[in-house]
Structure formats: C-alpha cells, structure tokens
Design a protein that fits this description.
The chain is α+β, with helices and mostly antiparallel strands. The chain contains 2 helices and 6 strands.
Length: about 130
C-alpha cells in the first residue's frame, strides 16, 4: 500500500514543477486521498485538486478506483478574482485481484501512458478526436 505523499508533475511548458500537496490520506476503503496545488492561489476554492478513492467491487474479485480532478479557471474582474470555469477530469479503473499481477500492472502502465501520449494530449487540447 503506497504512503500518502506530495505529487510533483510538470506544467504544460515541460519544465515547471507543479506540486500537488498531500491534504488528507485515505482512512480506508471508500475514503478518498486528497491533494491540492497550494501555490496556485491563496483562495482554496481556486486551487487545482485531485482525489483518489478505492474499494472492493461487488464480487470482491477486483479493486475499483475513482480519480477526480478539478482545475479552476479564474480571472480578475474589477480587482476581484472570480471563478470563470472548471476543467473536471474523471477516471475509473477496475483492477482484477484474481489475475496475474504482472499482467494487471501492464494494463495499468499501458493505459496511463496512452492518456499522456502526444496524440491524446493533442486531441484533448484541440477538443477533437484524431481524424
């Protein structure tokens, strides 16, 4: 079981580190672990946030994960910072516990690497599936 920690990722420029600060670890099944980018804003509601929750599936032969991410978009209007929009990202994952762990690991790595591939990132950035 991994230990709760800060997560550092690269910003879109490829060089700037963005630190998702560990806010609260999971207390067990169905309780999310939570992170936020404290450096993004002095206002907590305007900070990017992520959470991950896990639990057994109904048959108890797999672990279900739900990842939630929220990226607020703000602007300054009349000297006041306001929330203009939010970019939500949700992902769910069901990992078999009754299968070879090496094969399950391969599925995890390939799917994660597909999501951060140049083609997928370009599609998300442009707002269209590849044609």
């Amino acid at each position: 079981m991994p230990t709760m920690a800060n997560i550092t990722v690269k910003a879109s420029n490829g060089t700037t580190d963005v630190v998702y600060v560990a806010k609260s670890p999971s207390a067990g099944d169905k309780v999310p672990a939570r992170w936020a980018v404290d450096a993004a804003s002095t206002i907590p509601a305007f900070r990017p946030k992520a959470s991950l929750v896990s639990r057994d599936n109904g048959n108890r032969n797999a672990r279900t994960f739900e990842f939630d991410f929220s990226y607020p978009i703000t602007a300054v209007e009349s000297g006041v910072t306001v929330l203009k929009a939010t970019v939500p990202v949700k992902a769910s994952l069901v990992l078999a516990t009754n299968a070879d762990a090496t094969i399950v690991k391969e599925a995890i790595y390939q799917s994660g690497n597909l999501l951060v591939s140049s083609l997928m990132r370009a599609a998300f950035e442009d707002g269209y599936s590849p044609t």
